[in-house]
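Quick one, tokens below:
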């Protein structure tokens, strides 16, 4: 259900975080800002288009088959 909802922009997240409470809201907002800064630094330092990505080539059926083979090999 949460994956179907649209993502919030930064300022909406900030307002919702500050609405948590007078003390906890400020603490959580600081954590949110630091987290965003770390993410922005990471995106600058290692851009997404510069590293290789794993291509998924296994189907769930293949994974189940290998898992079953592994279980049967352990039983011997």
């Amino acid at each position: 259900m949460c994956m179907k909802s649209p993502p919030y922009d930064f300022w909406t997240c900030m307002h919702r975080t500050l609405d948590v409470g007078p003390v906890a809201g400020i603490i959580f907002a600081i954590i949110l800002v630091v987290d965003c800064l770390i993410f922005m630094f990471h995106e600058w330092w290692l851009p997404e288009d510069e590293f290789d990505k794993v291509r998924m080539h296994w189907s769930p059926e293949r994974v189940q088959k290998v898992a079953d083979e592994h279980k049967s090999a352990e039983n011997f």
